[in-house]
């Protein structure tokens, strides 16, 4: 009897915690608007991302790992949701959320800027996203706004 009551109490606490956490997280649409606003304020970053964007073919050839460290970030996960829009200069952008399980389960926002990469980012399922990690500094951009600007996509 006591075990059953304890289990019900624990279940209620978990449900309350999950509800409170979900209420604090901003919606996808709000986060997408923040990302687009941040990228509109940084046209040099948009130009650099477009220049660096590469879409890998479906069956890439194997190649050796580079011996030179690069300023890049890689995530592998499932794209859960995405939305497409345009920056103020007309550049197409796709913003989405990828569910990544390592090192812990987390949702990571990403943006794909430019024609070919923005089109390639449209779709759900498992992807490898390589790019630059962009974080808000609280001065030029919103604090705690963290996302990846994708420069390379593998399906």
Spell out the blueprint of helices and strands.
Blueprint: H1 2-24, H2 28-40, H3 43-52, E1 54-55, E2 73-86, E3 92-100, E4 106-113, H4 115-120, E5 125-135, E6 146-154
Parallel strand pairs: 1-6, 4-6
Antiparallel strand pairs: 2-3, 2-5, 3-4, 5-6
Structure description:
The protein has helices at 2-24, 28-40, 43-52, 115-120; strands at 54-55, 73-86, 92-100, 106-113, 125-135, 146-154. It is an alpha/beta fold and 155 residues long. It has a single domain, classed as Beta Barrel (OB fold (Dihydrolipoamide Acetyltransferase, E2P)), CATH 2.40.50. Strands 2-3-4-6-5 form a five-stranded mixed beta barrel. Strand 2 and strand 3 form a beta hairpin. It is globular and about 40 Å long. The N and C termini lie far apart (52 Å). Residues 19-23 have low confidence and may be disordered.
Integer count of domains:
1
Class per helix and strand makeup: alpha/beta
Assembly type: single chain
Low-confidence stretches: 19-23
CATH topology: OB fold (Dihydrolipoamide Acetyltransferase, E2P)
Write down the CATH class. Mainly Beta
CATH homolog superfamily: Nucleic acid-binding proteins
Mean pLDDT: 79
Return the string of H and E elements: HHHEEEEHEE
Total number of β-strand segments?
Answer: 6
Residues in β-strands, percent: 25-35%
